[in-house]
Amino acid sequence: MPAILLIKTSSMGDVIHNLPVVSDIAGHYPNATIDWVVEEAFAAIPAMHPAVRNVIPVAIRRWRHSPFGSSTRREFAQFREAIGEEQYDLVIDTQGLLKSAMISKFANGVRCGFDRKSAREPLASLFYDEKKCVEKSLHAVTRNRMLAASCLGYSVEPPLDYGITLEAERGDYAVLLHATSRADKLWEESNWIALGKELGMRTVLPWGNLEEKMRSERLAAAIPGATVPEKLSLSDAAQLLAGASVAFGVDTGLSHLAAALHIPVVGIYCSTDPGLTGILTCGRGINLGGRSGPPSVEEALSAWHNL
Fold first, then answer.
1. Which residues contact 164 (CB under 8 A, 6 or more apart)?
2. Helix (H, G, I), strand (E, B) or coil at 17
3. FRET pair for 191, CA 20 to 30 Å: which of 65, 80, 242, 288?
4. pLDDT tens, residue by residue, 137-147
5. Can you give the pTM of this predicted structure?
6. Does domain 173-306 have CATH number 3.40.50.2000?
């Protein structure tokens, strides 16, 4: 019964992309114990997977604002104690960054990660006992799965399984995920308005900060029947998505969460390559646009009808 620690701390989409690793390991080693180190803001995601035993939150994003503060030192000491309590057979860092590799050093067990040519930050490979080569041109989900498979000695096989489900009554509404971390990833507001008017169902526009709330309110004012919910926790957002008929989303973590929850998803990419980090499902999602430019409203509607 292997004891395994997974390290994938952030961001939201990256954490969701690591869920199939848990499903793969549990499928090959049903009695394995699987723990996961993740940024505190995203701790609800691995907790949704029934095969994850313990979620160990880390707060690097918050600690870096006050690295020498007394509360930071206290919380960091508590984190080191939590991660060091268990003796693991394998510590698998699927992040491939210096920060995640350094976290792996605090755990007890054989550390496994990407080799120098495969890691997002090559110096991270210096921290691993076992280093695996995984092609960088593959989708992030596939890279995660292949790394874990190589570390544990099994082959990656279909189907793709994120392993999370939520009990939710399916509603006749669409979720429009317009918010993202960079301005160049945004779809024009006029496109969202045109899409919302053509969908023929109620639309919901969640948000995460004041700027996003104001955009949601502008869009809702122009889309008949649209609603803007109160600020949602990650768990509440997952519940909203689980009950939706469809989600349309730009390059943002909630789009990937919708895909993981098995609802139809249309990914709208305006400046990034969906081949590496786009929506990945078993047939209920489609990616539109990319580095060459965003899709049209007509393309988004057509994709929804095809789904």
1. 19, 48, 49, 260, 261
2. helix
3. 242
4. 999 999 999 99
5. 0.96
6. yes
